[in-house]
Amino acid sequence: MSHISLPAATSKGLPLHVKVLIGFVLGAVLGLVAHASGADTPFINGVIEYVTRPAGQIFLNLLFMLVLPLMFSALVLGVAELGDIASLGRLGWRTLTYTAAVTGAAVAIGLVMVNLIQPGLHMDPALVQKAMSSNAGKVGDIVASGQQLKVLDLLVNIVPHNVLAAGVDDKQKLGIVFFALMIGIGLVLTPSPATQAFKHALQGLFEISMRLIGLFIRLAPYAVACFMFGLCAQLGWDVLAGLAYFVVTVVLALAIHMFVVLPLWVKFMGGMSPRTFFRGSQEAVLTAFATASSTATLPVTLRVAEENLRLPRKVSRFVLTVGASANHHGTALFEGVTVLFLAQVFGLHLPLAEQLMVLGLCILGGIGTAGIPSGSLPVIAMICGIIGLNPAGIGIILGVNSFLDMCRTSLNVTGDLATAVVVSARSGEVAEAELPATETAA
Question: pTM, whole model, 2 decimals?
Answer without folding.
Answer: 0.66
